[in-house]
C-alpha cells in the first residue's frame, strides 16, 4: 500500500516511474467540499489534463471538476483498480477526510504532477 505524504503518495520502493505512465487513483473536485470524482488511470498527467480541459464526457465535465485534490500512486494497475473500487464504496465524508488530511484547502495539485 502506498504511503500518503501531504496529499502525495510515494511508492514504498521509491523508484521513479516514467512521466507518461504514472498509475494512480485520484480525486477531482470543482471547489472545496464540492462534487468529488474518483478515478483510476495508468497515465495520471494525461488523464488530469483531459479533465481540466473538459475533454471527457461525463461527471467531471458536467460538474466542472477540474481540480486535482488528491492522488495516490501505485506500482500495479490491479492494486490501483482495487483501491478505486474501495474508495467509491466509502461515504462522501470519508473521502472529504482523506482529501483534507493531505490537502486541507483543496488546492489544485496539478503543478505538483505537471512540472517538466
Flag low-confidence runs: 1-19
* H and E order: EEEEHHEHHH
- Provide the spatial order of strands within the biggest beta sheet: 4-3-5
Distance between the termini: 27 Å
Count of beta strands: 5
Structural class of the secondary elements?
alpha+beta
What is the share of helical residues?
Answer: 25-40%
Q: Rounded to an integer, what's the Rg over CA atoms?
A: 13 Å
Q: What is the mean predicted local confidence, pLDDT?
A: 87
Major β-sheet, in short? 3 strands, antiparallel
What is the count of helical runs?
Answer: 5
Q: Can you tell me the overall shape?
A: globular
How much of the sequence is in beta strands? 15-25%
Give the SSE layout.
Blueprint: E1 3-5, E2 8-10, E3 24-29, E4 36-41, H1 44-52, H2 59-62, E5 67-73, H3 77-89, H4 92-102, H5 110-113
Antiparallel strand pairs: 1-2, 3-4, 3-5
Description:
- The protein is α+β, with helices and mostly antiparallel strands.
- 35% of the residues lie in helices and 22% in strands.
- The protein is built from 5 helices and 5 strands, in the order ββββααβααα.
- It has helices at residues 44-52, 59-62, 77-89, 92-102, 110-113, and strands spanning 3-5, 8-10, 24-29, 36-41, 67-73.
- The strands form 2 sheets. A 3-stranded antiparallel β-sheet has the order 4-3-5, sandwiched between helices. A two-stranded antiparallel sheet has the order 1-2.
- It is globular and about 30 Å long.
Keywords:
single chain; alpha+beta; 5 helices; two-stranded antiparallel ribbon; 3-stranded antiparallel beta sheet; 116 residues; globular; 35% helix; disordered N terminus; 5 strands
Amino acid at each position: 500500500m502506498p504511503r500518503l505524504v501531504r496529499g502525495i503518495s510515494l511508492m514504498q520502493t521509491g523508484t521513479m516511474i516514467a512521466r507518461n505512465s504514472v498509475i494512480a487513483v485520484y480525486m477531482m473536485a470543482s471547489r472545496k467540499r464540492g462534487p468529488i470524482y474518483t478515478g483510476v488511470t495508468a497515465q495520471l498527467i494525461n488523464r488530469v489534463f483531459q479533465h481540466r480541459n473538459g475533454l471527457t464526457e461525463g461527471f467531471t465535465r458536467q460538474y466542472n471538476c477540474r481540480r486535482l485534490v488528491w492522488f495516490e500512486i501505485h506500482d500495479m494497475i490491479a492494486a490501483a483498480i482495487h483501491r478505486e473500487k474501495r474508495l467509491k464504496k466509502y461515504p462522501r465524508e470519508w473521502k472529504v477526510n482523506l482529501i483534507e488530511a493531505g490537502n486541507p484547502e483543496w488546492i489544485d495539485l496539478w503543478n505538483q504532477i505537471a512540472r517538466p
